[in-house]
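To: structure subgroup
Subject: Chain for Friday's discussion

All,

I'm putting the inputs and outputs inline so they're searchable in the archive.
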Amino acid sequence: MVAWGNAWLAGHAGLDEAADHVEAAGGPVVAGDVPLRQYLANLRVGGLREMRLALPAPGDPLGLSGPPPFNAAAVDAGQAAIAVLDDRNLGLVPTLDRRGSSYVGVRLEVHDSGPVRHDLPSLAEAERDLSDAMRSATEALASVEGPMPGRPERLARGGELAPGYPARAHRVSTLATRLASALSLADERGLTSGQAAVRGAALRELDRAVRRALVAAHHAIFEPVRNM
């Protein structure tokens, strides 16, 4: 939602096109009881300027700046969007929306959000950190036996952003998404406790770099000069 929302705000996509792409991925989206198109239009009238991505994990509130109820909900979900308006920010946390036996969609829980964080990495920094983390993880994983995570090039494609994003952002997002998929396949069965510790440390560092890369890529549409 962040990528297509930003493409719409930057004039690279229409509202209907943006909403269609978001809902094609997860089904109908509502914020409270308001359909996504209407909710975004209402936010725009209220001064919506950009969408920010948060990908927190326990102990690493990446992209979050409070308050505690929003942080807790976002950490539980593993993700959140932040709508940046002229006079306030709103945190949007996705939850599964099931109705009856056949309807499956996404319901956005709406929270107050703190100010935009300015300590997040640039796209160039995040890409460099991701490359370093991949190298370190490869070396660490090669030192232990046992099942290896899936290779990124063999995983399903994904991570595409939206019109208006620089090519570098598309590239970083695609790689980070494939690595995230590989991390989800990691298996510690058959490892000794020492091997599991080495493997776990390497994968945690890679996970951190992946999340930072995805956040930076989603914000890059508003940083065209720095990310050329």
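Points worth raising on Friday:
Residues 152-156 have pLDDT under 50 and may be disordered.
The chain has two domains: 2-113, 123-222.

D.
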